[in-house]
Amino acid sequence: MKYTPIPSKLYEQNRQRYIKKMKPNSVAIFPASPTFPKSGDGVYGYKPDADVMWLSGIVQEKTIVVLYPDNPDKNMREVLVLLRPNDMLEKWVGHKLRKHEATAISGISNVQWLDGFDTMLQVMMNSADVVYVNTNEHNRLDVELPRTDLAFVHDLMKKYPAHNYDRAARIMKELRAVKTKEEIEVTKQAIAITAKAFDRVLKFVEPGVMEYEIEAEITHEFLRNRATGHAYGCIIASGDRARTLHYEENNQECKDGELLLMDFGAEYGNYNADLTRTIPVNGKFTKRQKEVYDACLAVHNHGKSILKPGILFPDYVKSINAEMEKQLLKIGLITKSDIKNQDPADPAFRKYFYHGVSHHLGLVVHDVGSYTDAVKEGMLFTIEPGIYVEEEQMGIRIENNIWMTKSGNIDLFKGIPITTEEIEAVMKRK
Ligand SMILES: [Mn+2]
């Protein structure tokens, strides 16, 4: 990992929050996600399991976190299980964590080697009544590969069929959605790096540059600032490409007169930033581009003014949609009769705005969290309305990351150019 050490307090606090939600005399087991094979003998760069990361800060394959807060043996209330380092492995792939290093990162004093895990677990299982097992409960989960999370649970249940099992993910979903001050501090670093990359790009873009050259500028800025890399496949979409929400080819020329939509974010300390900006390739918005841009910005600002603790998430979405409808009327993309004759299941504004306006953000870009309940203090959301106009080969999206606070919210992207005037001022050339 490239990032500088994160204070272990972040993870200690998270474990305390989790333990408070556990039933009496229960044990919770969190195995890390596996490494994923490429074709041939390669593997993809290790992406730590978000739950293991949240509980321990450990980025190493085959790690397991075990919590057993009511264990009569004080030393066994929090245990971190690690792969035992061996010479040959380290000659090939490099250093593996020693016990004292893992303790420094996680704040967990009892670190055990994986080869002793089964024996250790047997003693714990024989005394615990409830076992929290962790499976991926993301609402949009869709995988073809065999699920190692399920395999672990099945094995455990086969060996210990008489225990009461419960869902670790249900608690995780609720807790991980609410970010602590410490987590926001790390997120702010991811955002600061993302802001630097955007500034670099504003000064770099001109007619004739290729989309991949812009991607390279961003990657350069990310890595030299200790980001792990991109939080997700970055989208550099000039002209009509901007209407494709997950366009990642980034292989076209940016042409004079076009708009350029860029959706990218740095991953730093395993936390993510998620920024979208739309800029004019030649540094100056046309009158029409500015009109559509300002309509999108008005919806964005409306979102910021109402997304606060207490609002029901579906009510927020309804209000955004109403504002979008108003703005689209104003710029002539839809008419009053379009609205009058619309199918309520597919309203007129959907032709130009066809995605969700906000998602939870954290250790995962589309982080876990509820989209049906009231918004809570501590949640971190994106606000990202978009207007996509096929007739005008144009797509605009404006996205910031907003942290819910007791008194309202904080825009973590404050200071990053967002109005047409601010963008044009930075792009201005002699
Ligand atoms: Mn987003």
Can you summarize this structure?
With 430 residues, this protein is of the alpha+beta class. It is 36% helix and 17% strand.
Give structural notes:
It contains 13 helices and 17 strands. Helices cover 36% and strands 17% of the residues. It has 2 domains: 9-177, Creatine Amidinohydrolase, Chain A, domain 1, CATH 3.40.350; 181-427, Creatinase/methionine aminopeptidase superfamily (Creatine Amidinohydrolase). With 430 residues, the protein is an alpha+beta fold. The relative contact order is 0.11. It has a 6-stranded mixed β-sheet with strand order 4-3-2-1-5-6, sandwiched between helices. The longest helix has 24 residues, at 181-204. It has helices at 9-20, 50-56, 87-93, 99-106, 117-127, 148-159, 168-177, 181-204, 211-224, 287-306, 313-330, 336-340, 420-427, and strands at 26-31, 64-67, 78-82, 110-113, 130-133, 164-167, 229-230, 235-238, 259-264, 266-268, 271-272, 275-280, 380-383, 386-389, 394-397, 400-405, 408-411. Manganese (II) ion binds next to loops. InterPro entries: Aminopep_P_N (IPR007865), Creatin/AminoP/Spt16_N (IPR029149), Creatinase/aminopeptidase-like (IPR036005), Pept_M24 (IPR000994), Peptidase_M24B_aminopep-P_CS (IPR001131), X-Pro_dipept-like (IPR052433). It is an enzyme of class 3 (hydrolase). One of its GO terms (molecular function) is aminopeptidase activity. Its cofactor is Mn(2+).
